[in-house]
Amino acid sequence: MSREQERELDVQISFFEGVVARDPAYVEALQALGDGYTRRGKYAAGLKVDECLSQLRPEDPLVLYNLACSHSLTGDFEQAARSLERALECGYSDFKWLAEDPDLEPFRRHPLYKKIRAKVRLLKSPKA
Predict the structure, then answer these.
(1) Which residue, 43, 42, 14, 17, is CA-closest to 30?
(2) Which of 26, 42, 67, 82 is the most buried (most CB within 10 A)?
(3) Cα(117)–Cα(43) distance, integer angstroms
(4) pTM of this prediction?
(5) How many C-beta atoms surround the C-beta of residue 46 within 10 A?
């Protein structure tokens, strides 16, 4: 990322921090803020945002998936597994992205990922 892109991202982050400070339940602003933190490498801050989103939308598969990504990026693989399992239970179904998402790369090297792969295989198999 160039310095100009970093500056632009920092401005966006600052903007969304202000929006969220005024309205802590503004889901779209929280999502943009969490994405900005992650893109900037501020994984712990992104995790806090994703945890807040998971409280606001506990059944949203994409929110739970993003929470799993944040746990992966911060090295909490047990929580990443729990969040991914919950995302799958709630209907997350972009299995191709799950297998390629760079945010999950640290978790895919962990033994717990095998359980997720097995669950995905079951979900992908045709129903009898």
Answers:
(1) 17
(2) 67
(3) 24
(4) 0.92
(5) 25
